[in-house]
């Protein structure tokens, strides 16, 4: 079983806590520690969430919850820090070619099948590339996005549009 998979019937509290710790608690902790410096520097935050934060998918309950929580945290902190000139946004990638799935226990054959299946679950007919997500992050962190805060930006080849909530 892959480390991030599981339904309400399969995911125990230890697994749930681990996923939320990695995907939500850690971001909360680092944001809290960096907030004063960001205010002084008029910096900004771009969180990396997931399409799973804005759409529900079966079998990855804890992951969905963690990314949805990160999106809500992004919105809340955007409101809290806006008056100090700090912008807070997130990108919400769809399936992106990285080592994440392999590190989570997926073998090469299953990963290739997963990427092939992604051609049918993304409107643009393919998985994303890490550079595409990085470009969106760079934009949101740049002065070109100076009037954007509290946004969850799908960088998912249209996957969010294909999945009704």
TrEMBL record:
InterPro entries the record matches: NAD(P)-bd_dom_sf, Sc_DH/Rdtase_CS, SDR_fam
Keyword Amino-acid biosynthesis in annotation: no
Signal peptide region: none
Keyword terms, alphabetized: Oxidoreductase
PROSITE patterns, per the entry: ADH_SHORT
Any Pfam family: adh_short_C2
GO molecular function terms noted in the UniProt entry: oxidoreductase activity
Keyword Heme: no
PANTHER family xref list: EG:BACR7A4.14 PROTEIN-RELATED (PTHR43975:SF2), ZGC:101858 (PTHR43975)
Record-given protein name: Uncharacterized protein
Organism: Panagrolaimus superbus
